[in-house]
Amino acid sequence: MKTHEPDREVIFESPIFSELVTGLPAFVSHLNAEDGQLQDGHQSELVLQREIGKRLRTWLPSTTLVRQNVMLASDASHRYIPDIIIDRIGGGCWAIFELKTLLQADQLSANAIRQDLRKLCKYAAVYPDAFCLFLLIVSESKLNNLRRQTSWATLPISLAGDAFAAPSDHAQKIDDSWMTQPWLFNTTLSPFVFIWRVLHIDHIAAPCPVAYRFHARMDT
Questions:
Q1: Strands (DSSP E) found in 71-120
Q2: Which runs of consecutive H residues, i.e. helices, occur in 35-93?
Q3: What's the pTM value of the predicted model, to 2 decimals?
Q4: Which of 57, 173, 199, 214 has a CA that sits 20 to 30 A from residue 8's CA?
Q5: pLDDT tens readout for residues 63-84
């Protein structure tokens, strides 16, 4: 946080994504503790989406900047509704999330993930300046399950830790125009959390500022 004199305008930089990835395992564990379940027990995507939305609203300068389950794009045959939208102050989208969970007792098909990635391509085409993100919350046992590994083998989302250490080197094609890029992950506690960006192939090497940055000034 920096102060500019004499108008006392302050620049805030809120690390939204890193806070989310760091905190999500504890969020899920807390919900499961309340339900008497294991820390990586089943929670519905809708419940977790709402919990994420609550926390995002506390990190941003206005609660109105977070929207959930609102149509963002459409074509002749489909309406595209992301799980979570973070708006820019003054208009436009800053980040667009699709969320998937694979916790204890969950099933998650490769096709369901492909559908979310295609939706994110659609959002990125309409809002090229937005972060378009696929967020996965997964239990350790599911992550290491051989059947899961086989069924997801052709998906363009690498779950290897070294992929997130060198994201640009591990970008994978969704199609001829769009790619995924490993971005953030947390495997310190279960459930694990992974985030991939969806980017146009021409933007894969673009710099990635990660903080929600805004100016604020107190009027007297």
A1: 73-74, 79-80, 84-87, 93-102
A2: 45-59
A3: 0.91
A4: 57
A5: 999 999 999 988 888 899 999 9
